[in-house]
Amino acid sequence: GAGVSQSPSNKVTEKGKDVELRCDPISGHTALYWYRQRLGQGLEFLIYFQGNSAPDKSGLPSDRFSAERTGESVSTLTIQRTQQEDSAVYLCASTAGTIESQFFGPGTRLTVL
Amino acid sequence: AQSVTQLDSQVPVFEEAPVELRCNYSSSVSVYLFWYVQYPNQGLQLLLKYLSGSTLVKGINGFEAEFNKSQTSFHLRKPSVHISDTAEYFCAVRLISGYSTLTFGKGTMLLVSP
Fold first, then answer.
1. Is the CA virtual torsion B80, B83, B85, B87 positive or negative?
2. CA–CA separation, B110 vs B88, rounded Å?
3. Which residues of A touch B92 (CB under 8 A)?
C-alpha cells in the first residue's frame, strides 16, 4: 500500500487478556518503530527493528510487552496480561533510510477495561 | 539523552491571525529536528524537518520553523491560520547517527476559532 497501515483501528479488551497489534510498513522501508501515546502525553518509544539487526527493545515498559518482525515486512506488538494503564494509542512508523523521515500509521486505540 | 519541551499545551487563536508554537530541546550531541501534526483521530503527518543548511525551514500547509542552535529552539510559525489548522502539533528530535528513534515533546493543541 501507499502508507503505513495498522490493525485493528480500535481494540477493547478486558484486564488480564492478551492482545496483538499489527503493523504493515511501507514497502521497502527497512526500519520499523513502535510508539505509545497515552492520553495527554507525547509519544513514547517502545521498540524498533532495522533490517536483520537485533531489535532495540529499550523502550518496552515491562516484560509483558514484546514485538516481532518478519524480515522487512509486517510487525506485531503483543501485550500479555493487559492492565488498565496499557490503554493508549499504539503508533507504528517506518523509514527508508538513516536521514529519511519516519512515516506513521493511523494507530491502534487500545482500551483495557 | 535528548529531551523536548513544548511550553504551551494549548494555543487558542482566531482565524487569519499569526501563530507561533514553541519548542526547545536538550541534547549533548547534534540532532535532527521535526514537527509533526496530528489531526483528530488520525496518525502523525510530517510538517517539516531540519537536517542541515539554512536554519529557516519551510513545510507543508504554509508552516515554517527556524532552528536556533544557541537557544536550542525550533519554533513553528504560520503567518495566517485557518480553521483547518486545528490539530495537535508535536516537536521531535533524533540523533543524526543511524536509525535512532524520535524523542517527542508532549504536544501543543492549536485551536483556531472563527
1. positive
2. 6
3. 43
Say if the Cβ atoms of A91 and B49 lie within 8 Å. no
Give the closest-approach CA distance of B6 to chain A in angstroms.
Answer: 10
CA distance B109 to A77: 28
DSSP states of A25-68: PPTT--EEEEEEE-TTS-EEEEEEEETTSPPB-TT--STTEEEE
Contact A98 B98 (CB under 8 A): yes
- Does the beta-carbon distance from A56 to B101 stay under 8 Å? yes
C-alpha distances in angstroms, B67 versus A50, A57, A63, A93, B50? Answer: 29, 31, 39, 25, 7
Per-residue pLDDT of chain B (114 residues), as tens digits, is 889 999 999 999 999 999 999 999 999 888 999 999 999 878 899 999 998 888 999 999 999 999 999 999 999 999 999 999 999 999 999 988 776 788 999 999 999 999
